[in-house]
Design brief:
Helix content is about 40%, strand content about 30%. The chain contains three helices and four strands. A four-stranded antiparallel β-sheet has the order 2-3-1-4, covered by helices on one side.
Length: about 100
């Protein structure tokens, strides 16, 4: 299993727009990627502009396939104007 934690900083006043775009992406990921176990947007309790995406995949192939989907590639330009900085991505290996 492979985990991903993506930390995203959203620009002031862009929260609702960002959340709407991400919610659509998450629905599409869950419906179309059998190798995706979890794809959940969470929001910091201490900084309302910071979100973390918690992702779990069955294996590296599933993670690679996710990054190659057209809908994932299309989400970047949609989310770009909402961002308040570059995302930080951490990859994790599951312990069985």
């Amino acid at each position: 299993m492979i985990g991903v934690i993506a930390t995203l900083k959203v620009a002031e006043g862009k929260n609702a727009e960002f959340e709407a775009i991400f919610t659509e992406l998450a629905k599409t990921v869950r419906a179309n990627e059998p190798g995706n176990i979890a794809y959940q947007l969470t929001k910091s309790r201490t900084d309302g502009q910071v979100y973390k995406v918690l992702e779990l995949y069955t294996d590296q192939d599933a993670l690679t396939a996710h990054g190659q989907t057209e809908y994932f590639k299309a989400a970047g330009p949609k989310m770009g104007p909402c961002m308040g900085g570059r995302p930080e991505i951490e990859y994790l290996d599951g312990i069985e």
